[in-house]
Design brief:
With 99 residues, the chain is an alpha+beta fold. Helices cover 30% and strands 27% of the residues. It has three helices and six strands; from the N terminus they run E-E-H-E-H-E-E-H-E. It has a four-stranded antiparallel beta sheet with strand order 4-5-3-6. Strands 1-2 form a two-stranded antiparallel ribbon.
Amino acid sequence: MDITRLSYPHTDLNNPGRTSAPQEAQMAVQAPFRITVTVTGMSCDHCVGAVTEELRALSGVRSVDVTLGTGAVTITSDRELNGAEITGAVAEAGYALAD
């Protein structure tokens, strides 16, 4: 989430005494969370599938994109995921995050 786009409600100049949030801020709040991590040890499509399956099982995850060659895994979710959740899911698949 790009927190620089968030802003506090401001006074609506057309209706004094009434406040409203800018449309941009409302849209930013709805934007998905994205995080990219590096997973070590993956060497085939089966590895990618195992990691993808475990990460998709986490609550709120919308998508998981894995680049086998680099081990880069981008997770898009409706909520902020913590490191323990991601580490645990990757470990459940039999792999680890790079240091």
